[in-house]
Amino acid sequence: MGPLAINEIISENTNLFLAFIIGIGFGFVLESSGFSSSRKLAGVFYGYDTVVLKVFFTGAITCMLGLLFFSLFGWVDLSLVYINPTYLTSAIVGGVIMGAGFIIGGFCPGTSFCGAAIGKIDGIVFIVGLFLGVLIFGLGYNLWDELYLAKNLGTPKVSESLGMGDGLFALILIIVALAMFTVAEWAEKKFPREEY
Amino acid sequence: MTETKQIRKTKYLNPYIGGVLLGLVLLSANFIAGRGLGASGAIKSTIVATMTTVAPAASEKSGFIKEFRESHGGNPMKTWLVFEMLGVLVGGFLSGAIAGRLKFKVEHSPKITSRKRLLLALTGGVLFGFGSQLGRGCTSGSALSGMAVLSLGGFITMMAIFGTAFALAFFFRKNWI
């Protein structure tokens, strides 16, 4: 059955329309969870507000389990679902640069759009920065294309790389997440703050 | 606890419920479109469209544009992430409107000025925009969506993003607390 667009159960235009609807859900959930506030987002790095950690990991695990069960029931063909490729060098270097951008700018791209949508001027300025950053990458592409294309490992799954089944990995990730949530709840009590 | 404090505490969704809802949105994206959520990809599409319109000749030679075209055919603005991000603006606005959070403001720690906050937001944006291209997606497209489909790269990028931000947090503490 799924993915619907790839199995041509829905047309390309329907898929784009549903992208808009899914985007509304995405934006709505992010904003109602408080992701439109940079001080709330940055809180995770100081322990006074760990909403990012909780929402992010609960979200990833919910979808991961959903896909595993959907696949088990034959509702979705996982071999047709896009798996992000792993280019080892650029995944690390890109992630490090993004991490610096996160703590300096207080947003990530998705959350800056949520902030901008409710009138956060810092969110709008962050988006201007995003466009500049992507433009710089595009204009100077020849300077870093080697780095960008280095160490292409294909599309390995993290479970395969660790030599375990998907189910076992998901179980371990859930246990790790629960441990992190416990620490997060403790930190929020230890470093209280007012709501932003 | 006074009544006002209780209201302040409950104005956002419970984070675990928010997380489950986010997971369901991400799951529906994978089920419907066979791909996860994203954000920086829509910006890339806009930049590609702008570059090809403003400087068509130079763009023909650009490796960046060539790389984009190999993975996306047709009009760069008629892509899944562009429509999804337009939805994000609408969804964010609706949520803010319902919760009474619509307001033009610069949010910053009382220890810094608005001007400094905006300068930092611009700098952070440039870094995040650049990094998202190297990392083939941002927190949404690479880390969150990648993790949900068990991509090794997704986990590596997630650890690099959060690890770096934690490592640098001490040096930027005045901007936030």
Write the layout of secondary structure elements.
The complex is a heterodimer of chains A (196) and B (177).
Chain A: H1 12-32, H2 38-42, H3 51-72, H4 88-105, H5 109-117, H6 121-139, H7 141-149, H8 158-161, H9 166-190
Chain B: H1 3-9, H2 15-33, H3 40-54, H4 56-61, H5 63-71, H6 80-99, H7 114-134, H8 139-148, H9 152-169
Helix pairs in contact in B: 3-6, 8-9
Describe what this molecule looks like in 3D:
The complex is a heterodimer of chains A (196) and B (177). Chain A has helices at residues 12-32, 38-42, 51-72, 88-105, 109-117, 121-139, 141-149, 158-161, 166-190. In chain A, α3 runs antiparallel to α9. The mean pLDDT of chain A is 96. By secondary structure, chain A is mainly alpha-helical. Chain A is built from 9 helices and no strands. Chain B has 177 residues and is mainly α. Helix content of chain B is 71%, strand content 0%. Chain B has helices spanning 3-9, 15-33, 40-54, 56-61, 63-71, 80-99, 114-134, 139-148, 152-169. Chain B is globular and about 50 Å long.
Overview in brief:
The complex is a heterodimer of chains A (196) and B (177). Chain A has nine helices and no strands.
Mean pLDDT of chain A: 96
Q: Tell the overall outline of chain B.
A: globular
Oligomer kind: heterodimer
Portion in beta strands of chain A: under 5%
Main beta-sheet annotation of chain A? none
Count the beta strands of chain B.
0
Notable characteristics:
heterodimer, A: 196 residues, 9 helices, B: 177 residues, mainly alpha, 71% helix, globular, disordered N terminus
